[in-house]
Amino acid sequence: MNNTDNNSISLLHAMYNEILSLKAGQEKVKLEMKAQIEELKLEMKTSIEDLNLEITALQSQLENRNISNQHTSPSVSAISSANTIHKPVSIFREITLKHIFKMISEDLGIEVTSNEKATLNMCTKLICDDMAAHPSVIALGPNPSWGSIPVALKKEMCARHANIMKDSGIDFTRCLGNWVSTARVAHLWRDRHKRLQSRK
Questions:
Q1: What keywords sit in the KW lines (predicted)?
Q2: What are the E-state strand segments in the chain?
Q3: Is the four-CA dihedral 169, 170, 176, 177 of positive or negative sign?
Q4: Residue pLDDT tens, the chain, 200 long
Q5: Cβ count near 140 (within 10 Å)
Q6: Are the CB atoms for 117 and 168 separated by under 8 Å?
Q7: Which sequence spans correspond to the domains of the chain?
Q8: Got the DSSP string for 103-146?
Q9: Partners of 85 in beta bridges
């Protein structure tokens, strides 16, 4: 063999070793990625399980409050007229979050922070979800309008909303005719209805 052949063989050996090294590196990366994926799957599973437990706990609290509130909810006539909070406008559809936040601040004396806003949103969503699962609402079809829901059920759900908010430290039961809870539950329901209609 001449020097050229020797150099070629050495070069081929070097290339072969480099290929083996790259292949080994790729296998290592694959194993590491697989391990990371499995770890992420486990974390996601744990997070989902934790979230499901939280949802179950909230639903249980909601049911327990509903049972107790059936016996303790004050009627409109039982509320002292001196403590009654009237609607800022005559039409429910025209009641905005600005009206409600002003009432919470001025009439209830509670500073409206992100915590109060989150509480209001969460309680309203829970009531709407609970109402959507009610047999009489399910019987109306996949996307019933607010107007098609039985009045008695809407009153019951809005009363529950007011009591949950009261239990959370924001007393909506003082509002005459339960105007705050009715306005918020109706608004979220109508908003959901519009979104589902637009997807068709």
A1: Coiled coil
A2: none
A3: negative
A4: 556 666 667 777 777 777 777 777 777 767 777 777 777 666 666 666 666 666 666 666 666 665 555 544 444 444 445 589 999 998 878 999 999 999 999 999 999 999 999 999 999 999 999 999 999 999 999 899 999 999 999 999 999 999 999 999 999 999 999 999 999 999 999 998 888 888 76
A5: 13
A6: no
A7: 1-67, 97-198
A8: HHHHTS-----HHHHHHHHHHHHHHHHHHHTSHHHHTT-SS--G
A9: 175
For 14, 134, 142, 190, the CA distances from 20, given in Å and listed in that order, are 10, 64, 60, 64
How far is 118 from 35, CA to CA, in rounded Å? 37
pLDDT given for residue 82 in this prediction? 57
- Token code pair at residue 153: 């059920």
